[in-house]
Amino acid sequence: MKRNKNDYILNLTRDNTQLLLNKIWELPTERVEEAIVAKLPPQKTVLPRMKPVPKPRPLTKWQQFAKEKGIQKKKKNKLSWDEQLQKWVPLYGFKRAKAEKEKDWLLEVPGNVDPMEDQFAKKIEAKSEKIAKNELQRLRNIAKSTKS
Amino acid sequence: MSVMQRVVKATTRKGKKVLMKKEPQVIEGPKRALFFQGRKTSEKVRSLLKDLYDIKKPDASKLSRKNDITIFENAKPVEDFCKKHETPLFMMGSHSKKRPDNLVVGRMYNYALLDMIELYVESYEGLKEFAASKITLGTKPCLVFNGPQWDLSDELKQLKSIFIDFFHREYVENVRLQGIEHTISFNATPDGKILLRSYKVVLKKSGCRTPRIELEEIGPRVDFTLRRSKLPEEDLMREACRKPKELKVTKKKNISTDELGSTHGRIHIGKQDIHKLQTRKMKGLKKTAAERKAEKSKVRTVLVVNNDINTMKKKRG
């Protein structure tokens, strides 16, 4: 061993590899695309994972609330009949904005507000605020899910 | 409202895909490795890093600059590197007066250092010094651990686990018999050395089904000795070795197979209600028309009474 270290290791490894391959050759084989493959037994060596086991995505705040209250999602039709326009209007998406514009060509000024205030601008702002609030809630839900 | 964490949001579809890929997966692919240098590196260790990088290749990346890192004092920069390159394995070479020809092998779990072992490269002969033809890129090697020492000390046990993690590439169900062409042997000697040898496998006819194996050394040939080590904390290691629920094999109950290969199942049937059992129909047991009428009206009156009660309840509440 001392004098001829490398040859000793070579022979030892050769014998051990031979033993290993003898075991592999004994395994059940099958033919896959012109090649003979052996089916390996399940892995025994326990190796650490790279990242933690994925967790199910936590419920959003609304989903949590709906679950507690037992609120179930109702299915709505995509199209609904609009009496005013006398045509089918989609719930959202293509042709919805146009229909909305056609409907709101005139807006009523409520009695208790400044008559010179632009009601159209007010409506647009209300909508953009609603969008911003929803975006904030969405981000809060994501932050909550990544923290835990 | 509490302080919000910054949420990384992808702006493009491709970016979204990249972020999705970085999320934890149930089945993880091959572990990638990162090779880099410390403050100063000797030629020996540099070429060893290059050779090991060549062996590990499709799942590896190599940095070429020097880095001011003393990993046993502060592992943070290495963690950052590994996070940036998405590599849970790393190998760092360095050279100093106190610790010449130094190689640190380690791994990460969830972007934090799990364990690492420092090795002294005593002697080294590179891939180039062996004339034998080389192996195909990306083949899965046979790993042979010689010597009883591998199961004796904690450090060597850990080193064995790291080496397996480093070189086994990927868990597979099938292996192509003709594709086995590389053996890496790790030998632990009684005097505390670890000898790494790498061989090309030549399959020769032996007359029986299993071929005779001849080995040809292709390098690298390295002799290591152990230096410092950082073993993993037990909790962290247990957490890292956890198997996902989806991959656990659950035992199927009440199903058995007999010698002929047919499957038998045992199923559970609820208790039978004897009173509702349909027995043989006979003319004598049939109800007469008058009896049937009486039964029907009885049911109807009960329903009407129930309805009345319900409406009264509604009015009240």
Kindly describe this structure.
The complex is a heterodimer of chains A (about 150) and B (about 325). Chain A is α+β, with helices and mostly antiparallel strands and about 150 residues long. Chain A is about 45% helix and about 10% strand. Chain A is elongated. Chain B has helices spanning about 15-20, 45-55, 75-85, 155-165, 235-240, 290-315; strands at about 35, 60, 90-95, 100-110, 110-125, 140-145, 175, 180-190, 195-205, 210-215, 220-230, 255, 265. The model of chain B has no long low-confidence stretch (mean pLDDT about 90). Chain B starts with 12 loop residues before the first helix and ends with a helix. Chain B has a domain at about 25-240: Rossmann fold (3-Layer(aba) Sandwich), CATH 3.40.50. Chain B is about 25% helix and about 25% strand. The chains are: A alpha+beta (about 150), B alpha+beta (about 325). Chains A and B meet through helix 1, strand 1, strand 2 and helix 4 of A and strand 4, strand 6, helix 4, strand 7 and strand 8 of B. Strand 2 of chain A pairs antiparallel with strand 7 of chain B, so a sheet runs across the interface. Chain B: This is Ribosome production factor 2 homolog. Chain B: It holds the Pfam family Brix.
What is the overall shape of chain B?
elongated
Radius of gyration of chain B: 34 Å
Straight-line distance between termini of chain B: 41 Å
Largest sheet of chain B: 10 strands, mixed
Give the overall shape of chain A. Answer: elongated
Unreliable segments of 5+ consecutive residues of chain B: none
**Assembly state:** heterodimer
Number of strands of chain A: 4
Beta percentage of chain A is 5-15%
CATH topology of the domain at 27-238 in chain B: Rossmann fold
How large is the count of helical segments of chain B? 6
Q: Give the strand order, joined by hyphens, for the main sheet of chain A.
A: 1-2
The CATH superfamily of the domain at 27-238 in chain B is Brix domain
Could you name the CATH class of the domain at 27-238 in chain B?
Answer: Alpha Beta
Largest interface: A-B, 43 and 58 residues
Please bin the fraction of helical residues of chain B: 25-40%
H/E element sequence of chain B: HEHEHEEEEHEEEEEHEEH
Share of β-strand residues of chain B: 25-35%
Q: Give the integer mean of the pLDDT values of chain A.
A: 89
The helix/strand class of chain A is: alpha+beta
